[in-house]
Specification:
The chain is mainly α. The chain has one domain. 81% of the residues lie in helices and 0% in strands. Helix 2 runs antiparallel to helix 5 (74-87) and helix 3 (41-57) packs antiparallel against helix 4 (62-71).
Length: 88
């Protein structure tokens, strides 16, 4: 499905979304850190999966993502968010 099926206004919205995808993913990862501190059980497992997806979108190396998932420490993800915010 091409962009020709959208109005010019919708096309601009879609383009801006993809231009800002890094910022959106970084913000989402920051929100997930707070949720990871508070969640328990299966919900926490699901949040870790979401965090891994955000990290992949941000271009975090797979080895580092695997390390963070193995550790399961939200403070390590918080440090990653700080690090990534410093790059922007």
């Amino acid at each position: 499905m091409g962009m020709e099926n959208y109005t010019p206004h919708q096309q601009k919205i879609i383009k801006r979304y993809y231009q800002n995808l890094d910022g959106i993913s970084l913000q989402r990862l920051g929100e997930l850190v707070a949720d990871l501190y508070l969640a328990e059980g299966k919900k926490r497992d699901k949040l870790w999966e979401s965090a891994a997806g955000c990290m992949q979108k941000l271009g975090v190396p797979r080895q580092r993502i695997d390390h963070l998932l193995a550790q399961r420490k939200p403070e390590l993800v918080a440090n990653l968010v700080k690090e990534l915010m410093g790059k922007e």
